[in-house]
Amino acid sequence: MEVVGKEVAGNDMNICFQCGLVCENSVSYCHSCYEQRSESDFRNEQRWRNAESDLQVVEANLQKERSLTQRLEATLASYREMLLQGIHADVTIETGDTDKTPAHRAILASRSPVFKAMFEHELKEKTCAVIRVADVPTPAMRALLLYIYTGDHDTKALQEHGMALLAAAHKYDIPDLKRVCETAVASMVLPFNALETLHQARLYDANWVKKACVECIARNVKQVAFTDELRSLIYRNEDPEAVLEIIQSIASGH
């Protein structure tokens, strides 16, 4: 005979959960035990049934999510292969040092409104198979394209070309990548590079980086006060707003 609640081998009977007697049909309790059950017993059993049903729904949803994740990963892997191999590319990105990277207009346009505008309006880029980008170094452009195609971050490019990649993300209006770059650049702000980084951050509306720079300068004002970078900001009037932010931060004690 099987354990409580399981069907008895060879027949269609169950064993009562409460007394262990064999019950006819597929029921959980014999007639006598069923009659003796309290209202709280019924409520508890209903809660268990509801919980079991909820668990089944959760498991089904998790299975759907796993399936979607697997399909998404497969799609992104295909996109990566298309980028790396230049499969059916219909445009070439040429950076300032004449490095050429085959790409796909549809993918670029789907992720960047700037690329989309290039391909939709009567610009030179629309009729030409080459887009020349003189102001973005090759490693930063490759990292930008990798993110557009797969959503992956090039850690090495973030460390070595973080500001250039931030500038590219700003130029091509890819805000999620820009946020990633801001976090990376802000983490690398030090007294010796804070002024130059602040100046560049202002050019690209990188507010998180600006905040990190101003706070770093305010904390290390003695190290920064006599640098050539600060003289340039003040005497050459290169970025008066940056100087004002620094003074206000120092005055507020931050």
From TrEMBL:
InterPro entries: AtSIBP1-like, BTB/POZ_dom, SKP1/BTB/POZ_sf
Highest taxon of the lineage: Eukaryota
Pathway: Protein modification; protein ubiquitination
Residues in BTB domain copies: 89-157
Protein name per Swiss-Prot or TrEMBL: BTB domain-containing protein
